[in-house]
Design brief:
The chain is mainly alpha-helical. About 25% of the residues lie in helices and about 5% in strands. The protein is elongated. Bound molecules: iron/sulfur cluster.
């Protein structure tokens, strides 16, 4: 996976529908109102939420996929998705309690 810094690919100085003018920036742009076609033209990559989470986790881990895998912050809401797939769509490959039923 390509590691790129999380910086805004477009200017916050441009007004878009739904944005509020702070005097310095137009904030609060709603991507649902902007639409995917314009987002891509603005320089964002069309990606799935799960791939965006994976990218965020690698960035959070200093750009290291290995460190993202080793993340110990199990309370983070992104933790179950940090490998780039939803565990809720996978069959379990391991057992809890050492393989004994609870
Ligand atoms: S699960 Fe949370 S704390 Fe861990 S790498 Fe992802 S974003 Fe960072």
């Amino acid at each position: 996976m390509k590691n790129t810094p999380l910086i805004a690919p477009f200017s916050l100085k441009e007004p878009l529908k739904g944005s509020e003018d702070t005097g310095q920036h137009f904030i609060g742009k709603n991507p649902l109102e902007i639409g995917g076609e314009i987002l891509v033209k603005m320089g964002l990559t069309n990606t799935s939420p799960i791939k965006a989470i994976r990218k965020n986790c690698v960035e959070c881990s200093g750009g290291s996929p290995k460190e993202a895998r080793l993340c110990v912050h199990t309370g983070c809401p992104l933790w179950p998705f940090r490998m780039g797939k939803s565990p809720y769509r996978q069959k379990s490959k391991s057992k809890i309690n050492g393989g004994k039923d609870a």
